[in-house]
Structure formats: C-alpha cells, structure tokens
Design a protein that fits this description.
The chain is of the alpha/beta class. Helices cover about 30% and strands about 20% of the residues. The protein has eight helices and 15 strands. The strands form four sheets. A six-stranded mixed beta sheet has the order 4-5-6-7-9-8, with no helix packed on it. Helix 4 runs parallel beside helix 5 and helix 7 packs antiparallel against helix 8. The relative contact order is 0.08.
C-alpha cells in the first residue's frame, strides 16, 4: 500500500541522515511473492546509489520469490543462503531466511555457523525471520498468520553462540528486547508501519552500533492509534471539550481508532445524538474506522430508583451542603462505574 512504500522511502532517507553503514530488513519486504515481480523495478531504483548497503532477508511472505542471484539494486544484497554470510569491514552478518524448519534443524544450522566463526574476532550478527517461543505473545502479534509455527527458536539456542546480536523479524506489534549473556541482545523492532488495526502506537526501528545496546528510534510513519475517551460529567469542561483535549498532540501520521465512553450531562445543552454528531465532525478524515460510542447521559442514573432512594435519605441527614454534595458525587460515581460494567 502507499503508506508502506512511503515508509520504506522514509527509512532510506533516515539511513542517509544518520550516516549508517548497513540497513537490515529481517523478512517480508514484500507481502506476496507476486509483489516482488510487480515492484522489482521500483525497488531497484530506491535501492541504488545509496551511501549504505541494504541487506534483505527472505521472510515467510516472500521467500518463494527470492531466487538465487536476485538483483534488487546496486546498494542491496539478499541474504538467502544461511551458509554464506555478508561481510562488511569488521562485521559479519549471518542469515536464517525463512524455511519451513523445526527447532532441531534450526539449532543444527546455528551450531554450523558457530563452528565457522572460531578464532574470528570480528563482530557477528544473526538475522532471523521466525518466532521466539520464550516470548509471551498472542497470535495477532504475527499479523494474519493463523496458527502455524514459523521458524520457532528459543533464547537458549543463542546463549553460548558467538552472535553479538540476533535481529529478528516476524513479530509485528512493538519494539521488544531480550538480554542474553555477555551483553548480547535478541531484538524484534516490530513493523515500521501498522499492518493491521491491532498494531497500535508509533512505530520504531533499531538504530544501533554492533557491540552496543539496541536503540529505539521512533518513526514518523503510518500507524494506528487507539484513543479511548472516558467522559466525566463532573469536570468543568464539557463533553466535546474533553474529546478535543484527548485528541490534542496525536501524531499527524496516526489513523485513529476512537472510543468515547463514560457519562455526559445532557442538561448542559447537548443531547447524546448531538454529541455523537459533533464528535464525528471533529474526527472526520482522521479515523481508520467509525468511532465507537458507549457514553450515556447521567440522567439515566439520576432517575434510577436506587439513586432516588439514596438522594431522599441524604436530604434527611445532617451535614453541610458541601458535605452532602460530596457524598452525592461519590454515590453517582460509584453507580456510573457499576452501570458501565
């Protein structure tokens, strides 16, 4: 989609600004194998003449399209053979491109790589496209993948191996890091754009120096943002002002997923229907989906038999008007919470 292409171009511009030496894409540059053929000419243009190298690892979405010797531009290299690392000055980059392998086969390949690094004092990085089984995750963090396992690995696979960092793709949701022994890291940066509506929040990449800690770098790319607004009828601001305040400061690239709940005071000159119409106008053109309205008029609680009985009892008791008003608000807030549940 256009926003994904724009994100790719923005990442390349970021690489130039930050004077990086290497950009690694850990799988699924393309959504489908057919996209590679359709977009290859355009990719060659943006992956040529760069002041750094773009290293691309095949993922489960596009692995079938990566034939041997594929050309993606004069600044790009494809890491499609686990036995042939990419070497750049003092850094060696190994890759495990996606294949339908189990843990035993993956572990065998990792130990093969480790044996070939003996005595080599350069820094060694590993690119991986697969699932870290140690991670607590729900299936939606992988995108629309279903229930199949994809290149499953465990942190224990890497504890004694010579990789300074394991840079992984496949998890979409967010930037996540696991620490290994001897100051090493396993990193999922998440997707650089939101792919589904369940992937919310500003997206990030890992900008780092081999041997140093991962660096979260926030992107100005397309993403979904959840905005859950809970109206409070006891604040000085009216319901529409409360909505405006909740929408202030959101990233301009965000597409909103808005929910408006809580209670409003319909006696202040705005009905439920009028508020819903005003909110729709306020967020027009900024939303990824129609807003969800769960708010209610506090009049429904004021008319409730239980609250009416409490009000009558409160009026008969002694106490200052201020104390009675405080107790009335506490009762209303308690009933508001119960009714919303």
């Amino acid at each position: 989609a256009d926003e994904r292409w724009q994100a790719l171009v923005a990442l390349l511009e970021l690489g130039s600004r930050e004077k990086i030496d290497l950009m690694v894409i850990c799988g699924d540059l393309f959504d489908r194998g057919a996209d590679l053929l359709r977009l290859q000419d355009s990719v060659r243009q943006v992956f040529s003449g760069l002041p750094f190298t773009v290293l691309v690892l095949p993922g489960n979405h596009d692995a079938v399209a990566f034939g041997s010797g594929l050309y993606l531009g004069d600044s790009a290299a494809v890491l499609d053979d686990w036995q042939r690392p990419f070497e750049q000055e003092s850094t060696v980059v190994w890759g495990l491109p996606f294949e339908p392998l189990g843990g035993k086969e993956i572990l065998g390949r990792l130990h093969n790589m480790a044996g070939r690094t003996a005595g080599d004092r350069r820094r060694h990085l590993l690119l991986l496209h697969g699932e870290l089984l140690d991670a607590f995750f729900s299936r939606h963090e992988l995108g629309e993948e279903g229930d199949e396992r994809y290149m499953p690995v465990k942190l224990s696979y890497f504890q004694q191996l010579p990789f300074d960092a394991i840079l992984a793709g496949h998890f979409h949701s967010s930037f996540r890091v696991w620490s290994l022994e001897r100051g090493r890291y396993f990193v999922y940066p998440g997707s650089p754009v939101s792919v589904t509506r369940r992937e919310t929040g500003q997206r990030k990449v890992n900008l780092f120096t081999p041997g140093g800690p991962p660096g979260e770098y926030a992107l100005d790319t397309f993403h979904f943002a959840e905005v859950a607004i809970k109206l409070d009828p006891f604040t000085a601001a009216g319901p529409l002002e409360q909505v405006r305040a909740a929408l202030t400061g959101l990233h301009p690239a965000a597409r909103l997923l808005v929910t408006v709940g809580g209670y409003m005071d319909g006696t202040a000159g705005c009905s439920e229907a009028e508020l819903a119409a005003q909110v729709r106008t306020l967020i027009e053109g900024r939303c990824a989906a129609a807003p969800v309205f769960t708010f209610k008029d506090i009049g429904s609680i004021l008319a409730d038999d239980l609250f009416q009985a409490f009000q009558a009892r409160l009026e008969q008791e002694e106490g200052s008007p201020e104390e009675k008003e405080r107790r009335r608000e506490l009762a209303l807030r308690a009933m508001m919470e119960v009714k919303l549940c």
